[in-house]
Design brief:
- It is built from 11 helices and 12 strands.
- The protein has 279 residues and is an alpha/beta fold.
- It has 2 domains: 124 residues, Quinolinate phosphoribosyl transferase, N-terminal domain (Aldehyde Oxidoreductase, domain 3, Alpha-Beta Complex), CATH 3.90.1170.20; 145 residues, TIM Barrel (Alpha-Beta Barrel).
- The strands form 3 sheets. Strands 6-11-10-9-8-7 form a 6-stranded parallel β-sheet.
- Helix 4 packs across helix 5.
- It is elongated.
- The two termini are 38 Å apart.
């Protein structure tokens, strides 16, 4: 993940800044002298979990390579409304020009981390791990999955090369679960997971040399039946329509993992602001 983050920082942040600045920040550049320096505080305006300092700092450093970004609330830390997240210091033009992009990233990633922590707390004590999915914003997957980790979740596969997940359309093309698994093992050594729709498919899948079974959109009673039948012989993952109200009951069935697309597609950005302190 660290290497991917470094690549993300070097590849995308300059593009985000260029998108926002265009040919130049005419307001800031007209008002603020080029060498003027100052400080500002980044402050939480509501309770939540922080994620994204590394990316916000990167934005300012793209604009001022001498910029100082002091994390007060490090990524993964819970904050209350009014808490200082970071203190920034450098060229005033960099602060004012980079503010919107830095806050956009910090707010969104903190929103993901906050929602993830809520799900993690909801299954506390059950042993179930909360997973993310590939339902991320195109181009933002590394940052969004990083935010899930900061919220206490676990990353599923980052991309399609990390794990084989045989779903119903793959099974339909192959003709059977057995044949689909056979074809995957013939071509790759990565871990293999199979999605099953019912107990009959689960009983087929567990006979194969696979690493995990996915129960997609199973109700609580069927999930409990699957857990009892499998009896810890292979890890089980549950997914589909997970809400904070429902996830605890699913976790209590004894599944090992619960994957939740909402972590990265239905989060609410955390309210965060930047307050300038002058010279």
């Amino acid at each position: 993940m660290k290497d991917r983050i470094r690549t993300y920082l070097s590849t995308y942040l300059k593009t985000y800044i260029e998108e926002d600045v265009g040919t130049g920040d005419v307001t800031t550049n007209s008002i603020v002298p080029e060498n003027h320096t100052s400080k500002a505080r980044i402050v939480a305006k509501e309770d939540g979990v922080i994620a994204g300092n590394i990316f916000a700092a990167g934005v300012f450093m793209e604009l001022d390579n001498q910029f100082l970004y002091e994390e007060v609330a490090y990524d993964g830390k819970c904050v209350k409304s009014g808490d200082v997240i970071a203190i920034v210091e450098g060229k005033t033009r960099a602060i004012l020009t980079g503010e919107r992009v830095a806050l956009n990233i910090l707010q969104r990633l903190s929103g993901i981390a906050t929602l993830t922590r809520q799900f993690v707390d909801a299954v506390e004590g059950t042993g179930a791990k909360i997973l993310d999915t590939r339902k991320t914003s195109p181009g933002h997957r590394i940052a969004e999955k990083y935010a899930v980790k900061m919220g206490g979740g676990v990353n599923h596969r980052i991309d399609l090369s990390e794990m084989a997940l045989i779903k119903e359309n793959h099974i339909a093309v192959a003709g059977s679960i057995k044949e689909a698994v056979k074809r995957v093992h013939k071509n790759t050594k990565v871990p293999v997971e199979v999605e099953v729709k019912n107990m009959a498919e689960l009983k087929q899948a567990i006979k194969e040399n696979i690493d995990r079974i996915l129960l997609d959109n199973w109700d609580i009673e069927s999930t409990q039946e699957a857990v009892s039948y499998v009896n810890k012989r292979i890890p089980l993952e549950a997914s589909g329509n997970m809400t904070l109200e429902r996830v605890g009951n699913i976790a209590k069935t004894g599944v090992d993992f619960i994957s939740i697309g909402a972590l990265t597609h239905s989060f609410k950005s955390l309210d965060i602001s930047l307050l300038h302190e002058g010279v």
